[in-house]
Amino acid sequence: MSDVAHDATELAPPAELGEMELYHPKTWIGKYVWSQDAKTIAIQYAVTAIAIGLVALALSLLMRLQLGFPNSFNLIDPSNYLQFVTMHGMIMVIYLLTALFLGGFGNYLIPLMVGARDMVFPYLNMISYWVYLGAVLILVASFFVTGGPTGSGWTLYPPQSISPGTPGIDWGIILMLVSLILFIIGFTMGGLNYVVTVLQARTRGMSLMRLPLTVWGIFTATVLALLAFPALFVSCIMMLLDLVLGTSFFMPAMISLGEQTAYDGGSPILFQHLFWFFGHPEVYIVALPAFGMVSDILSTHARKAIFGYRMMVWAIVGIGALSFVVWAHHMYVSGMNPLFGFFFATTTLIIAVPTAIKVYNWVLTLWQGNIRLTIPMMFAIGFVFTFINGGLTGLFLGNVTVDLPLSDTYFVIAHFHMVMGVSPILVVFAAIYHWYPKITGRFLDDTLGKIHFWMTLLGTYAIYYPMHYLGFEGLPRRYFAYGDTAFMSESSQDLNAAITIAAFIVAAAQLVFIYNMIRSITGGKPAGDNPWEATTLEWQTEHTPPQHGNFAEDLPVVYRWAYDYALPGAKDDFIPQNVPPSAVVYEDEADDAEGGTGKTS
Amino acid sequence: MTFTVIIMVFIMGGVVWWTVRQTIGTTPWTAEESTLEINDIGFVSSQDGIRTHSMKIGLGVFLAVATSVFALFVSAYLIRMELSDWRPLAEPTLLWANTALLVLSSICLQWGVISGRRNEFESMARGLLGGGVFAIAFLVGQLMAWDELAAAGMYLNTNPANTFFYLLTAIHGLHLLGGVYVWGTTMIRTRSPADNERVKLSVELCAAYWHFLLVIWLVLFALLSST
Question: Quick one: how far is CA A523 from the chain centroid?
C-alpha cells in the first residue's frame, strides 16, 4: 500500500508532552467575555476587526464621494479628506487585516488544525485580545477629540505628521501612536502563542511536513510580524518623543508657519527606513495567511491534493525571509544611491520567483481537479485572478525607472489595493464561507453568497482597473480635488465618478454579506461535522461547533498529510488525516463495486 | 539599517535552517523503527527532558522580538549619529559600577540554576534572591546616572546623543523591570517547598532573560561610550 499514499504511515510517534491543563470557566462572563478559549478569542478578534473594518469602508466611501463628485458634499473639507485617507489605510492594513488573519483565523484554526486542545498560553491569549480592543478604542477615540484624527497619511511621515497645519496635530497623532504601540504589545502576546503552539502542541504524528498550508502561512506570517512590528514600535516611540518632549530624532531644523521650530538635525529618512522595515513585511504578514488558507480551500473544493506541497512550504518561508530585504523599494523617490536602488529592485524582483511558484501551484492544483464551484471556491479562484493582476503591476513598480514617474499616482493605489487589499479580502471571504459551518454549525446562504461574490469581484475590478489608467495619466494620490489641470483628460473625472458608483455597489454587497452572516447563525442550513468532506483535523471534531477542549477525550492521531483527496483506488475521495492506512477502504475490497465516489486516475 | 539587516539575516537564517532540518533532515525510515516499540504506550512524560518546556520556547521567541527592538534602536542610533549636530556625551563613570552589578546579578542567577539542577533548593533560592537584589541595585544605579547627567545640564532634548542615552537606558531598564516583576512572583513561590519544580523552571527562565539583558547592556554600553 506504500504506493497509494503521500507519506501515510501506520505508526505515530509517541506524545512528547502531557495533556495540557485547561482552564474551565465557571461563569458566563468567564466563558464568553474574559474567555481563555482560543475559539472564543478568535470570534472576539474577528468581530472587533470586522466592526472597525466597516468604519474604514465607510471612510473610503466618503473619500470616493469627494473624488467622484467634487465639491458637492459640504461635509467633506480638505482636512477631513486627509483624515479619512489616513484612518482608512491604517485601519484596513493593521486593525482589520492583521488582526483578522492572525488574531481571528490564527486563534481559531491553529489549535484545531494541529490537533491541540487550546493555545499553549491561554491567559496571555486572552490579554492579547483585550489589549487589541484597547488599541482599537483609542483609535476610535481620535475621531472625537479636538482636531479629530491625524491626517498625515497611513505612513505617518515626519516632519509633516507632527507639524502644525496637519489635521489631528492636537490629539489625533498622539492617540494614533499610542494605539499602534498598544496594538504591537497585544499582538506580541498573541504571536508568542501562535508560534509556540505550532512548535509545541502538535498532536501525535503531526509532523511539520504534514501541517496544512494554512498553519504554515499563519505561522510564518507571525514570525515576520514578531520581527517586523518592533520597527513600527521603535518609530512610534521615537516620534512620540519628538512630538511630546521636543527631541529631534526625525525632525529637521525647519521653519513652520513662519517660525523657526525648536527641532534641529533630525532625519525624516530615518523614519522612512524604520517604517518600511515594518511596512514591507507587513504586506506578507497579510498575504502569507491568505496564501495558506487559499491553498487549503482550493485543494478541498477541487478534490485534489495541493500541487507541490513542499515547494509551497518553501515558497512561504522563502517569501518571508526575502521580505526583510526589499523595504527600500517604497523609498525610490527619497533620493537614494543608485546602487541601493539597484539592490532593492533586484531583491524585489527575486521575491516574484517564490510568489510565482505559488500561483503556478494553485493553478496546477485546479488542473484536472473535480472542481466544486462552491462559494468559498469561487472566492478562492477570484483571489488567484486578482493576485496575478496585482502582482504583475508590482513588477512594474519594483523597477526604479518605472516607479519614479508612477510613484504617488493612482497606479500605485490600484496596485496595492489589488495585491494586498482585494486579494486578501477575497481570501477572508473564502475562509469565512469555508469555515463558518464549523464555527456555527450552519451554512451561509448560497444565493446571497453568489450575489456577494459577483458584486464584490466585478465591483472591485470596476473600481481598480480604471485607476491604472488614471495613474498612467499622472493623477496624484491623496489630493482632495484636482481642479483644472492641464495633463488630466476631461474624461478622467467621468472615470472617477464611475469608480465612486462602483465603490457604493461593492459596499452594498458587503451589507448583504453581513446580513447573511447574522441571519445564518440561527437560520442557516445545518451543516453537520464535515460538510466539505475535508481532510484536516478541524473537521474531525466530535462536536460542531467544537466544544471547550476541541477534541473528545483522546486527541486525534495523525497518520498522513492534509491532502489525501482522490487517492487512487480508495473508495472515498477524501481520507482524513486521522485515518490510519489500515482503515482505508479500497474499491476492490469494497462489497459493491459501484458505491463510493472515489475516482481512479 | 545594515546592523538590523545583519541581525535579521541571522534570525531568519535560523528559521530557514530549522525548517531545513525539519524537512530535508528527517529520516522517516529510522523514525518508524524507533517508534515501533513505544507506539502502544502512546504518551511519554515531558519530565524526561525529551521536549523543551513550552515556557522556554516562548521566552526564546520573545528574546528574538526583543533582539529586533534593540537592533532597530541601534540602527537608528548609528544612522542619527552620522548627522552633523551630534555631540558625543560623556557617560557617567557610575555606569561601570552598574555594569558590575548587572554582571553579579547574572552570576547569582546562574548559580541558582546550577543549584536547582542539583536539587539544592535553598541554595537556588539564595541565588535567586541575590540576582534580584543586584538587578534592583542596577536599576537604582541607572536612575542615579540619569540624575548625574541632568545635574550637569544634560537633558533629554539637549542633543540627540543625550536623547539616545536616556531612551536606550530606559528601554533596557523597562525590560529588566519586567524581569524583576517575574522575579518577585518567583520569590513568593520559593516559600512553599511544593512549588520547587516550578521555581526551578522560573529560575532558569529568569537566568536566560538576565543573561540576554546583560549582553544587550554590554552592547549598548560599548556603543554609548565609544561614540
Answer: 28
Give B189→chain A minimum CA distance, Å.
19
Please name the member of A14, A120, A313 whose beta carbon is closest to the beta carbon of B42: A14
B41/A14 Cβ within 8 A: yes
In percent, how much of chain A has pLDDT > 90? 80
Write down the pLDDT at residue A590.
62
Span B118-144, mean pLDDT? 95
Tell me the three cell numbers of residue A398.
519594483
Calculate how close chain A gets to B172, using CA atoms only, in Å: 13
Cell 475490497, located at residue? A589
**Greater pLDDT, A20 or B77:** B77
Question: For residues B137 and B177, is the Cβ–Cβ distance under 8 A?
Answer: no
The dihedrals phi and psi of B51, each to the nearest 5 degrees, come to: -115, 135
Name every chain B residue with its beta carbon within 8 A of the beta carbon of A249.
76, 80, 160, 163
A232-251 as b/e: b if 16+ CB within 10 A: bbbbbbbbbbbbeeebbbbb
Work out the minimum CA distance from A344 to partner chain B, whole angstroms.
13
Nearest to B68 among A11, A227, A310 (CB): A227
Split at pLDDT 50, 70, 90, the class of A563 is very high
ipTM comes to 0.90
Section B78-95 average pLDDT = 88
Q: Tell me the residue length of chain B.
A: 227
- Gap between the Cα atoms of B80 and A281, Å rounded: 24
* Type and span of the H or E element at B168: helix B160-189
